[in-house]
Amino acid sequence: MASKNQVYNSHFLLGQEYSSDFPDGWVQVGGDSATKWEWVGEPQGPRAVGIIHPSGPRAGISLGNDVLVPAEEGQRWKLRVALQTEPSGTSCYIRLYLGAVSQLQFAVRPGSEPEAFTRVFSTPTGVSAFRIEVGILGTGSVIIHEIQGWRLYPERELRLDDKGQLYIRHVDSLGKIQSPVSVNVINRNPLPVDVITPIKTELRNLTPTCDGVKIFSSEGAPIISKPDGSLLVTMSGRKFFQRIETINSRVMGSTVPNDVAEASVYSYAIHNVGIEEVFVQLQISPDGTIWTADGVESGILPGNLIVITPNHFLRYIRLAYRSQIPGTMIALMIWFQSQN
To answer: Comparing C-alpha atoms, which of 49, 62, 48, 54 is closest to residue 31?
Structure first.
């Protein structure tokens, strides 16, 4: 494991340069007019960030864009977040923005005493840095004590100078080198190699009656060409499927299940056409009978449209919905679209 935590101001000890009421490098995200953020603790430490969340959408803190955690593709990282909530078991979340490539989100339910949550994740192709967001989903309050991250693999990377030689920052002691030491460095960039060798062969003129090439399909049948030598190729396009549902209800419920066994890409678009905030959540099932949540609930304000994609694969998928206040009208337009 990398010996040093890579998350800036992970214990919230440093204040902002032009503002002394919030830790440096962290910004407030989400919430509404009733949400309050507090920087608690003594100046000399320990310190924490408290969020009072009476209602509304998620509320949290996020690393600023100028202090993102530097990373590269194909790495493994360990994340540690210490939280406590009141009341105990209030729903919270940990979200990772892996550049512009993808997102990861973990749902946790801390107790009334500080509790540490650890997650291990991999960085996908195209990542150069990632951002961490931690916050509260349910009604209540949360205290965020620390947010730390360590690179697990690779432990250390070799650094090369402009000439491709091993870079040495300093030498602790000087002495006579008794024998040369070889260092094998694997260059990530392929080296072009030209191979020139004489070839001796005798070729006669090829004729269609005596020579040719026979091509077989994956099922073993030969492919027949036309008299002029050309082949007939049929291109198969993608198939598109769409289901639209209109919801007008005062009770919580779910959409019609969709079988995604043969779909390669699928998602839901949800438009809140009512006057009250509505919460939706993806659910997945292996048999269409037993269902489990796939990710956390998402709040949709009146007039807003959001898109939700699944985090895991099972054969059946549906969308559950509920109102913020039981008994109020739920008015939604829901599109399910897939391609295969």
So the answer is: 54
Helices vs. strands in the chain: H and E counts, helices first: 0, 21
* Residue found by looking up tokens 């509404």 in the block: 32
CATH number of the domain encompassing residue 75: 2.60.120.260
Which residue range forms the structural domain that includes residue 261? 240-339
> How confident is the model at residue 1, as a pLDDT?
47
How many other CB atoms are found less than 10 A from the CB of residue 140?
A: 18
Burial of 82 (0-12, 13-18, 19+ CB in 10 A): buried
Whole-Å CA distances, 194 to 163, 191, 197, 274? 22, 10, 10, 68
Structure tokens at 261: 């066994």
For 284-332, the DSSP string reads EESSSSS-EE-S--EEE-TT-EEEE--SS--SEEEEEEEESSTTS-EEE
Please identify which residue in the block is written with the tokens 């002394």. 20
DSSP code of residue 176: -
Identify the domain boundary among 104, 127, 153: 153
166 - beta bridge partners?
160
Is 171 contained in some domain? no
Q: Answer whether residue 6 is part of any domain.
A: no
pLDDT of 30-48, one tens digit each? 999 999 999 999 888 899 9
Give the residue ranges of the chain where pLDDT is below 50.
Answer: 1-2, 158, 166, 171-177
Q: Give me the count of residues in the chain.
A: 340
Residues 6+ apart with CB under 8 A from 80: 116, 117, 118, 146, 147, 148, 149
Residue 272 near residue 300, CB atoms below 8 Å: yes
Cα–Cα nearest to 146, from 36, 7, 31 = 7
3-class SS of residue 119: strand
